Amino acid sequence: MCNGQIERFNSTMGAKIVALSNDRKTDWDDQLPFVTFNYNTTVHSTTKTIPFALMYGRAPVLPFDHQDPSVSLSQEPEHLIKLKTYLSSLTGQATNNIIKNQSKYKQRYDLNRSNPSYKIDDLVLVKTLNTRHKFDIRHEGPFRIIQQLASKTFIVEHTKKTTLRRQVTVDVIIRLFERTL
């Protein structure tokens, strides 16, 4: 849950690799340089900048760009100073865009986030780790909280199988209420 950005990146890269690979997907490693170059030369939605430009301080030269037959590199003494200034301004803009997007993501996350509190002796169900089919059970238990390790980390013990203990966090447990008659 905390690696959403990485999962999003992997999803993007996976889709691009699948699109370029052969039918049996045996040459995906041959396509990887092309996919990474494509990713690094595309405007990133968070930074609003091309990652290549953040790294090298210039726009990438693509195969279809017009190129002069002779290339000359200027040896201005101020070139290094200009490049450092340009890179720091690009980095500053990207940082500002990241901070804006992080606050937007946090607002969206907090909008639907509950903040449950648990105490010792509460009954809970624990999320099943390896669901294989949509009809598999999603939670198992009941478990009783026997120890609190941190604000959101607990040790739980199965109510019937007391040798079954687990360390869990609040994101994998659901409160279970006892019915009083």
From TrEMBL:
GO terms for molecular function: nucleic acid binding. It comes from the Eukaryota. This is Uncharacterized protein. It comes from Didymodactylos carnosus. The lineage of its organism: Eukaryota, Metazoa, Spiralia, Gnathifera, Rotifera.
